[in-house]
Amino acid sequence: MSKQEMSVNQLVANIEKGYIQKPEMQREYVWKATRVRDLLDSLYRNYPSGTILLWETDTVAPTSNFAIATDKNPTSRPLLLLDGQQRLTSLSSVIRGTPILV
User: Which end of the chain has fewer CB atoms surrounding its CB within 10 Å, N or C?
Assistant: First the structure.
């Protein structure tokens, strides 16, 4: 396992382009607006916001749609989002100015 650092903008761009995909086993988006506000406040104050866990695999895994619009990307080595889906969906929605589809 290797550690790789990405900026928030890189993570959001990778979701938008379809390079990061949500495995079918992930729950649906459930955060309320107050959780999103608290996440943004934490980032603004440089507080730790948790780790994002991505898995790069050659194996085809069933995926489901994010609660935000993303491009379909048939990449042969997707990054499957194992932890951090609520945070990344929220950040992507706020930064891109797009609604969350629930």
Answer: N
- Each residue's pLDDT, cut to its tens digit, for the chain (102 residues) gives 678 889 999 999 999 999 999 999 999 999 999 999 999 999 999 998 889 999 988 888 899 999 998 988 776 688 999 999 999 999 999 999 998 987
Residue 101 in any domain: the answer is no
Residue 3 in domain: no
Q: What is the tally of structural domains in the chain? A: 1
User: Residue 22: how many CB atoms within 10 A of its CB?
Assistant: 23
> Does any domain span residue 82?
yes
- Say if 62 falls within a structural domain: yes
pTM: 0.88
